[in-house]
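Could you please consider the sequence and fold following this short note?
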Amino acid sequence: METKDLLKKVRKIEIKTRRLSDHIFSGEYHTSFKGRGMTFSEVRQYQYGDDIRAIDWNVTARYNEPYVKVFEEERELTMMLMVDISGSEHFGTKAEFKKDIITEIAATLAFSATQNNDKIGLILFTDQIELYIPPQKGRSHVLRIIRELIEFKPKSSKTDLAQALRFLSSTQKKKAIVFVLSDFMTSDYEQTLKIASKKHDITGIRVYDIREEKMPNIGMVPMQDAETGTVAWVNTAAASVRTAYEKHYREQLQYFKETFSKSGSGVVDTRVDESYVTKLLGYFKSR
C-alpha cells in the first residue's frame, strides 16, 4: 500500500473510532475496568474499625503492636490487544472483511484506554508471534498500532492461540486488561487460557461472517482453506456435507464460549454486518 493511501486509511479509522471512544466508550471502559485492581501503598497502625484481614503480621510482630496494610486503587492500567492475523481473517461476504472490523474494534478500544491515560500494547499472532509492540501511552502510539493492523504482512497464515497466550504470560508480568480479537477458528488453548486468566482480565471478541455459519447449496465447487492453502472440490449439494460443515462450526463456537467461560474470561460475539458498538456497550454494562 502506498504511504499516501495508508495515511489516508489510518486517518479515516482514527476519525471514526476516536469519535466512538470519546463519546461512547471511554466512560463505559472506565466503569468496567477501573478500580478492580488494588496496589499496596503503605502500612500504618491499626485503628478501631479496620478490617483484621488487612493486618500485616510481620510488621505487627516486629513492633509488638498491630499494623495494617493500606491499599490504593490502581489509577493506571495496561491494555493488551491480541489480534489474530491468520488467513481466515481475510474473509467477508458483506461490505468488509473480518480483518477490517477487527481493526476498527482494536482502534476503538485503544483510544478508550488512551482517554484514561492507560498504556496500550499489541500482539499480532498467527501460529507464531508475528509482531509485539510493548505497552506505551499516547495518540502517536495508537496510530502506530493502527498502521500495523492495516499494513502488516504475516509470515504464516495458520492459527495457534495457545502460543500467543503463552507469549502474553511471559511478557506481561503485571495484571493487564486483555482483548483477544479473532474468529476463534482454532482449538487446544483451554489450559493456556486458564493460566493467563489467573493474572489478567481477558475478553475474547469473536468476529465472524454470516456465510461461515452454513454452507450454501451451490453444487460442486472448488474451495480453498485460507490457512493451509489447500484446494478441494466440494459437493455442496450433498446434505451430509453441509451437515458436517455446520456441526464442525457449532463445535468450534461451543469450544470458544465454554473455554472462555470456564476460565472466568469475558465473551463478545459480533458479526461483520452487525453493530460492534452495540455489542461492546452491552458487554461493558453487563460487567
The CA atoms of residues 143 and 249 lie 35 Å apart.
